[in-house]
Amino acid sequence: MNKIKSFxxxxxxxxxxxxxxxxxLCLSGAVLQGNGFLSMTHYHxxxxxxxxxxxxFAMLYSFRLKGLLSHEDTAVTMMILLGVLLRLSxxxxxxxxxxxxxxxxxxxxxxxxxxxxxxxxxEYIYKFHxxxxxxxxxxxxxxxxxLHHILSxxxxxxxxxxxVSEALAFENLQILTLLYSCLxxxxxxxxxxxxxxxxxxxxxxxxFLVFHPATIIMAGSVNNDMLxxxxxxLTLLFSLRFIRxxxxxxxxxxxxIIGFGMITKLNSAVLAIPLAIIFLMHFISVIRKKDKRELxxxxxxxxxxxxxxxxxxxxxxxxxxxxxxxxxxxxxxxxTSPMYTEPFSLWExxxxxxxxxxxxxxxxxxxxxxxxxxxxxxxxxxxxxAEEYPTDLSDILLILCQVVFVxxxxxxxxxxxxxxxxxxxxxxxxxxxxxxLTGYVIMLISFAAFVVxxxxxxxxxxxxxxxxxxxxxIALGLGNKYYLQGSGASKDxxxxxxxxxKAAPFLMHLIxxxxxxxxxxxxxxxxxxxxx
Length: 532
Prior knowledge:
- By secondary structure, this protein is mainly α.
- Helix content is 68%, strand content 0%.
- It starts with a helix and ends with a helix.
- It holds the Pfam family PMT_2.
């Protein structure tokens, strides 16, 4: 027994192991791309990755025989490692321009061309060693805040310095988003751990984010979405930490996270709204204590927060206002675009989607507003299959896609109800309830408002609300904790009456089974869908 215990990861050592694995494997991805992997035939690429996964499963089986997987941190680390391998495989098998959003193009140092899109934006900084000095709203993609593009430029320069060709250096831009996606898994684990979620609840909740196709596909993106999601997930984690430990240190961390999130993408500031409510609740409680010294301390602390977050977070907005008299916004394709949804009623766009809008027979995003203009239908399509509209799927794969899509629709409703139920549960502390519930609602409201202000089908893409996956992970974790596990379940259910007492565990088992079925089937679909 003592020998087995010596192998288990303690909380901090598990975190260290996970971070080391992520960094090593991400760098290995860059090395593989630079050592002929990309020039191999698809057959040989798949063979190589199959060997990698066989090694992983052999290690997993060995851990199981030794009893190491009975230790939660070890099991979690192995799950995260599998998630890293899936993301790495996707990046290695997907090119720079595959399934991208607003990617643009590059032409290299040998030209003075200024190219559009996120790749062009990175190239501009790399080529001219400065932020674009043109009006960012005159060239597509340049209106975004620059943090992601600056980091990408630095990574690009490091590649070039190490002797990597320009074409391969740009291909390696995916390694950064791979890193961000992998780190999101770790942040989710730490968040679930902070909420005292363990056992089966931990595994299912974490698996939901680790194996969800959106987080895997976005690992190969080159835009700023994945870094934005990382900052938003960190905001969730450190806000929950602040609720438990109202210290200046946590406040400073939050200020930096929100500030850097805003200069990655402005919509990351949405989570500052529920956090502001928590600040207000806390400040009111300080006032009620009538302790002048403590009151002055917290006035100072919140002033420090504002002094940090405002200059960082608002710097891009102020720069554009001063230099170009431009207010924050998004350039739009115009009314002639087939994606334009303004001619349709608000109910058609934001109401409950009809069966014809859901396209159960072919559950993929058709791009054209005439084919589908409903925000929630498009959101569900793109959550599973991105903005893909395959025309050559086999009958078996199409049936699997239909089954997964219907299951996903059912689970989306059930998990949303579950989130509300666990956050209204008395076992969830008041500040957690307020922060998480208002955050989730505000996220969906801001998404709906975005679709109304920018009425195009592309505005309904799931990538704008991918952070909601973390909320659902929390709901799954707390649901298992309250309704299926330990004393928490008996305490909560003891106050319930007959049917409700029996229904909650049954529904929780149903949700668990549905989530696991979706995750398994979607991996099978992508395994045989010849898009990787």
